[in-house]
# Entry
Amino acid sequence: AVSALATGAALLAMCSVATRRRPVEIAAVVVAYVAASQLAGGVYPLQDSTGGLWWVQVVVSALTAGIAVAAGMAVGARRVEVRSLRERAESAEREQHARAAQARALERNRIAREMHDVLAHRISLVAMQAGVLDHRGDLSADESRVLVRGIAEGSHQALEELREVLGVLRADPGHPEPPQPSLDRVPDLVADTRASGLDVRLTSSVAATPPDGVGRTCYRIVQEALTNAAKHAPGAVVWVTLDGTAGGTLDIGVRNGPAPLRPAPPPSSGFGLLGLGERVGVVGGELGHCPTPDGGYVLTARLPWPDGPAHRNERGA
# Structure
């Protein structure tokens, strides 16, 4: 009101306040600015002043204040937009880091699961054969030689399969992975386990070839069940039953009787059945396992089998 040179600074201050985009503050500053402009007319009266000139001063003051407020509001809106874009960019970067961490965790889990599937079965059979050598003192030289040969062959096969897994993990990501074992490999798995000394009996009434995911899950279920039987019930009889048709379900049952001998508790990761539960859940199936009244153990699974083209594949043993 007392300084004509303060008009520019006042407008700049009003523009700065308007960037905050708070209506109450802006209205108070505008009213103060217009009132100060009217008081300035009394401090510096104009020579050609007329009775209606104060209306012109009010209009001019309001217009200049409106221009300053509009400029400040535009600057404030731009700042909010830039801040929002920065926050979105930071959020996208955090999400990208989270996805990368999740992908690494999933890859580690996949590697651990493949390593478990490859090594647990072979090493369990080797441990079972070594346990027979340790507990049986009445074995003939030929029987001992067969067990030693089985231990050597099982160890060699474990190393070969481990080398294959590591080769896949080190290969180019675009390189296709080798085919995974499926339902048609279950008889070979049973025969291999039986050759290692475990009495396994397979009964299969599957009349077609299931989808790859279902067949692969079935193979891993039987493999894990035989691995557990070899570790916890060496010498027991194991029954493996497979039954299912396209358009229904694939039912899997693995049951072993009580162990003739009570071996020392073998080392266990505790993730075998947990990994099976995840595999079965991926294909939408159900998994169950529990001890039997006679001291054995039973594992059952039911996998959905979508209807589709099938090939005859009946096997039994």
